[in-house]
Amino acid sequence: MRLPLLPLLTIAYLITSLTACVSYSELVNFDDIRAPQGQTREIENALDVKIQAKDLLRVDVESIDPEAAMPFNQGAEMAGVSQASNQNIQLFQGYLVDEDGYIDMPLLGRVKAAGQTIESLQFLIRGKLKTYLRDPVVNVRFLNFKVTVLGEVSNPGILNMANSRVTILEALGMAGDLTDYANRSSVLIVREQDGERSFQRLNLQTDEVFTSEYYYLKQNDVIYVEPIRARTATVSDPGQRVLAYLGPILSVVTLVIALASRN
Questions:
Q1: Which structural domain range is residue 253 located in?
Q2: Alpha-carbon gap, residue 252 to 248, rounded angstroms
């Protein structure tokens, strides 16, 4: 006995769809936010990023007398160079924090940088410069503030940040957002600080992520977004991958046969 082709194709398509589907709850972020709409919360986990050994710092010094300030601006003689890339030039304009936590500046000698914030280091350098300059203005910023995003994101890789106040949500956004197969309940952050390595998992489906000390990122943090089981199945089972490709084809064939049967 021959079975009708249309019901068979319909059943095959339904089986294909069910085996590859991802539930709605697995795709939603912050579904468990408990704060009433319109209510505000004080930010208690605001992070002051501390300078560490091996950081690369840009120090700009200005004064009423520009020529007197010029020796303190490392790489100022390269300002007219236009052929080299901006990033390569910056590598020669920065002060590298050594293993002991110091930077070595002209006339000022070794200045303690590790353990300080950008603002506190600016204040310290400004005080030392008053011996040589009148009303000095000091600006310090990171040249190598970067985080690495891996796993189930659209564009994994290393992200160089111009701003040192970066949240995990901003980093994921710069990486193209999470894929449909991302495990939003278990996002791993690996952090190295003061010679120690720490690991922390964040659940992006609850509001606890906003109060975590890992919500604000530090330089050289690594974010890994692990896959859900549906993703693992498509990679490990070749048959599952075939079904994923057959799904759209079966749907088109089913539609064509259905339209043809009406005529």
A1: 5-22+232-262
A2: 6
> Residue 81, exposed/middle/buried by CB under 10 A (0-12, 13-18, 19+)?
exposed
The number of domains in the chain is 3
Q: Are residues 238 and 253 in the same domain?
A: yes
Distance CA 60, CA 49 (A): 19
Which of the listed residues 120, 142, 164 is the one where a domain comes to its end? 142
CA distance 247 to 237: 16
Same domain, 223 and 181: yes
pTM score above 0.90: no
In tens, the pLDDT along 62-112 reads 988 888 888 888 755 444 444 445 555 555 568 999 999 999 998 899 999
Following DSSP, what letter does each residue of 2-47 receive, concatenated? Answer: PPPHHHHHHHHHHHHHHHH---HHHH-SSTB--SPTT---------
Query: Same domain for 183 and 124?
Result: no
